[in-house]
Structures
1.
Amino acid sequence: MTAPLLAVIGRPNVGKSTLFNRIVGGRPALVHDTPGLTRDRRYGEAEYFGTEMRIVDTGGLDLEAQRDVIGAGIHRQALRAIDEADALLLVVDGTTGLTAVDHDLAKQLRATGKPVFLAVNKIDHQTRDHMVHDFHRLGFGEAYPISAAHGRGIDALLEAIANVIDPNRTVPAPQKDEDDITSYLGDEDDAPEESPAPDPHEASQPLRVAFVGRPNAGKSSLTNRLIGEERSLVHHEAGTTTDPVDTPFSIGGRDYVLVDTAGIRRKAKIDADIEKLSVTMALSQIERADVVVLVIDAEIGPAEQDARIAGMVEESGRALVIALNKSDRISGDTAKSTLRELTKDTFHFLTWAPTTLISAQRGDGVDRLLDLVDQVHKEARRRITTGELNRFFAEVIEEMPPPLYNGRTVRVTYITQATIKPPTFVLMTNKEDGLAPQYRRFVSNRLRERYGFRGTPIRVVVKARKDRHKEGAD
């Protein structure tokens, strides 16, 4: 069965592509402050706690802009997206206020008879929440204050959408009557001890590995070394690779698809339109990959741009291996020690990502690289049973209970793993805002200490447990 389609609609420059990227993960849509940059429909897929959906990003709708040829094409593409969608997400800019174009779009969307959700973007702090009120005049009921750039309010918006497009959705963890985790652990017979079995279809699919990095780091040479032939053109001039190149590859009974991508330079250094498109397509491969290998020229060493790329991988939730290529040119213990320290400092925020030395030209370390790719992919698909997680979390609470929130105790009822790739853990509490980001990071660090998860990001999210007694009173 095809997942429901959600169309992201709005006037130019309100943050539709940024929101699209936030929902689907990675950066499959190019984002820039130039109105009209998005011209075609861009599709992506997302899952919100068991509810699958397809997302389509559209160009900005503006009656004035559609008078020229390009504007008219953008308009046609957006209208087609509206027509084929099951639900519509109207994005407006909270900082500029309600406009005549917003009114026209609201009227047009309402006429479709489809569910419409209103997202008021660029509300990046609660002090701006009052900006939402004016948009209630559009007549869509709830208006969701969000910041697509920072992720604020996205959870509430997605939950509302999921409840409408999938009315039969189930909560990914059981509800318990006990008020604390110790009583939950005392009744393990009711706990879902076994996580869902791995999807055998997914296990039989080739492992998709994307090689990304700055120009001339040796991505194409690495691809050629692995497959044993010149599948990708290699040249000393940066920018030889433009389109991502998919290459099926098998070794030791394991199937892979190797993806060689264009070098990713800093935006300030990208001039030609074709290079901009190539970089955009390279970034989109991060979201499509099972594992990303960040290839770095060891002679030059990792730089700020490598850290940016690694940050994109972490944000997308993909498993990551850092490969220091051309390591055969690094001689002497002092030089190697300096390289290790520079790598550690550059990727200080990714202590979980393994680093390996390779030489694509000579073949040194390439077998080890594939072993790491297999290992981090296994970790990204790892599941921990709910019973085991709650036994672990009882120890965490004993070590450091959640801090008080507004002078009141925050109770964590239970913890469960909701998804894999990346492993995502849900803490059910009596106060959704009661667990500060610092405490979630503390829990994340303890999860890594206990279970590893080497090479994959993990997510720790908080959801408020519904008060059954209050619902009964209503």
2.
Amino acid sequence: MKKPALILSAVLLFAAAGSTQAQGFRRNAVKDPKANMGVKVGFNSTMFFIDHFAMGGNELSHIQNNYKVGYFGAFFCRFNLKKHHFIQTEVSYNVLHGSISIPNTEEHKELLQDNALIKSTMHTVNVPLLYGYKFIDSYPYGMAFFIGPQVTYNWERYSKNEYSGFYQQGVCEKSRPFSFSGVIGLAVNVSNIFFDFRYEAGLQNTSSNVTFDTSQTPAPHNQYPIEIKRRKNILSFSAGVIF
């Protein structure tokens, strides 16, 4: 926990320093420049939506999605168009946390050893392409709506999924390297300081395959393949400076 906290603190200090410098580059009160650049940091809350979860062809039910808090940092570039319209692209590094729990009910007795839990940590790089409209654009105040697609790269080396409560031993879930989502949000700014609220809706399954150690798994569960299809939806909040 200390290392992520130090990294986040360093980014915050950088943003604060940038804010001071940005005062010398304030946007014109009448006309925006053709492009703005900025940096932001924030927190996210991830929930996995399960489309399919089965073991040996038997569908699991009563699945609970648990929100967990992560964090991220991003650089962005905004291209200002005519009449309050803009196009914005970003590159962000994200650390996501989330979990899925399945109670060991009577209908799950033959499938689960105990109450089951899947804890997920994902390190991702996001690149969205957003269209926005500034419906309040009177310096120093501004408010804008934005929407657009996003491509995500999942950094498998630093991501992990921990399975517990299953008969299957040594479970390993691999994620797809790329996934796509839709983004919608609202940005509010006062002078060069802004706040960003957004929701990301996953458009496709992020899980590639699930394997386990059949030699360590008791019969007949060593013959029960684990199948899971899930999408990640993320609610995030960030603060930053725009130059």
